[in-house]
Amino acid sequence: MTEPLRPGATIGILGGGQLGRMLSVASSRLGLKSHIYEPGNAPPAGQVADQVTTSPYEDTVALEAFANTVDVITFEFENIPAEALDTLEAIRPVMPNRAALATSQDRITEKDFLTGLGLACAPYANVEIADDLAKAVALVGAPAILKTRRFGYDGKGQTRLKTEADAQKAWEELGMTPSVLEGFVDFSHEVSVIGARSLSGEVVCFDPGENVHRDGILHTTTVPAKLTLSQQTDAAILTGKILNALDYVGVMGVELFVTPQGLLVNEIAPRVHNSGHWTQNGCVIDQFEQHVRAVAGWPLGDGQRHSNVVMTNLIGDEVNDVAELSKDASVGLHLYGKADAKPGRKMGHVNKITGSA
């Protein structure tokens, strides 16, 4: 893509969940159309998109038809089959690129990439076969956490080892699939940076948000985070380093541990991110518009924050509190249009304004 997209052009989005929904809304505000590709029926994003294709990622004919209706393709989740990307890329540009996806889809690949940039991560070791397990425990020690190398999210695909004797049982719980053993880190809190990079190489970062998890799922993100000015600067610099190294286009979430020794990178997510939802009410240009601007070849917004915000996810039946929450004039409601409030399911979020920046 050499020219910026003009209003009326169509953004193709792989995935029809809440992130795809909010990308579609952002696209429409900019006069751009959206076309969702989603294997599941009645996706939340389909309620606000111009078009929806419902078909599996193995359906080459459907993928080609989808690609021929759009001008650029992006995605709301990482685990897209390589074969599907082969089909799509032959017709339209996909942003962010394959390097970013391949790096984030495998935790060992991701950590090797990050440490190769000179960035600090928790101690880690690869576990592919039974013999690797003892070596990994000897290297990393315990307590530790064992995570599948692929397909883990929201606390899924991981289990904790309290002692070295728990290693075999933990690996069996994960189905003895290729995994990574991560050592525990002495950190005071977790923060994340939402960064963006344009086609021209411009990099913009939103202010870091401070995250609190509950049952492995993000519960709140608070901005501003408890960070020194130096830590804020370091967080933005390392995020830019990652974006540039991947020749990235779009928005990325970078999760960091704050430790006495400095900032450690926990993981990266090559997409708009749950911890960036606060930007919808805290900034003029939020993370979703920023991502659309990037993949459309438009200039990025500056990411400046005008308000302090606490974002809280509404999980499961917490969505039933909406009537009460809506009475608070300082709360911005964002519901995802999901029919069933299942335990552990993200049904929406609220952004509470707590003051001016």
Explain what you see.
There is one protein chain. The chain is of the alpha+beta class. It folds into three domains: 10-94, Rossmann fold; 123-183, Dna Ligase, domain 1; 189-356, ATP-grasp fold, B domain (D-amino Acid Aminotransferase, Chain A, domain 1), CATH 3.30.470. 27% of the residues lie in helices and 29% in strands. The chain is built from eleven helices and 17 strands. It has helices at residues 18-29, 60-67, 82-89, 98-105, 107-116, 130-140, 167-173, 229-245, 279-282, 287-295, 322-325, and strands spanning 10-14, 33-38, 51-54, 72-75, 124-127, 144-148, 158-161, 179-183, 189-197, 203-205, 209-214, 217-223, 250-259, 262-269, 307-315, 331-335, 346-356. Helix 1 (18-29) crosses helix 10 (287-295) and helix 4 (98-105) packs across helix 5. The protein is globular and about 60 Å long.
Shape: globular
Domains, number: 3
How many helices? The count is 11
What's the level 1 CATH class of the largest domain?
A: Alpha Beta
- CATH superfamily of the largest domain, by name, is ATP-grasp fold, B domain
Oligomeric state of this protein: single chain
Strand content: 25-35%
For the largest beta-sheet, the strand count, sense and barrel status come to:
9 strands, antiparallel
Q: Indicate the CATH architecture of the largest domain.
A: 2-Layer Sandwich
Weakly predicted, low-confidence segments: none
Give the % helix.
25-40%
N- to C-terminal distance? 37 Å
Radius of gyration: 20 Å
How many E strands?
17
